[in-house]
Predict the 3D structure of the following.
Amino acid sequence: MNYIGSKYKLSTFIVSTINSVVGDISTKIFCDIFAGTGIVARNFKKSCQQIIANDIEYFSFVLNKNYIENHNEIPNKLDYIEALNHSPLIDNGFIYKNYCAGGNGERQYFSDYNGKKIDTIRQKIEEWKNKNEISENLYYFLLCSLLESADKLANTTSVYASYLKNLKKTAQKELILQPAFFELDDRCHKVYNTDSNQLIQRISGDILYLDPPYNTRQYGANYHLLNTIAEYKSFIPKGKTGLRKYSKSKYCSPNTVQNELDHLIGNADFKYIFLSYNNEGLMSVENVQKIMQKYGKYDLAEIDYHRFKADKSESRCHKADSTTEYLHILEKG
């Protein structure tokens, strides 16, 4: 999934740095409190005693319920994927009516066929859940599979802040539900869907990994359609892009971000805290260092990498093709 701030390409750097600082992590509780797609948490799923993952966006919660919390084999899960792929299409669903050209002649986030198929699959998954025909684990496996399969065929440049006037080649392909396989292990993990600064006051562990928003772009707006598919509750879409109401993060405002980070770190009952942030973020290295040094021993690791560009216009705004990723390190005293 194309995800702003994804740590997929930085996973090796993050994992190796954390391991070098902490040492043996086999008995540790690891928390990824701004988990996003869960890439970092997934890297520690088999090596730590327990993973705690959280994100305020509901679609991220669904991904992590599958990839992190699911850890035992689910019988016959591929039979359900097969059944969903062959379900007769409906043409009166919410996605088709509001986000496909054939539905209202305005928005075109998906082809008409794919919009109908998303609705068909989403409604069937919910029907099975309501009739207790599937377990909670299978529910999130199927829903995660739908989100990732649909995202691959979205008629966007990457995020859902806008759609393309004409269907691009990938968006013209017919949606085939692909299984979102998760790693099996013998540990129990926990996944939350709440505000990080509230959650930090009622959890504890050993390693806290922070990857908050870096700039003013709100994830709730950029990924609103994935939240709509995940929640699948009726509402009146607003404006040209069909926005829904979304939570605005204080980490996306230069006026509040430092206080939010200070509050989070101050309330964290974790010995080791690692914060990912880059040189294009709202806070400077000095800002972060000043906050973290209040609570213990501070250090810094960094790496240069190719920056993510959501679209061509963003490329024109940034002359540099690479950015510096910082991993701020705190051992709380």
Residues 72 and 81 are 18 Å apart (CA to CA). The first helix runs from residue 11 to 22. The chain has two domains: 1-71+185-213+249-313+327-333, 74-181+221-248.
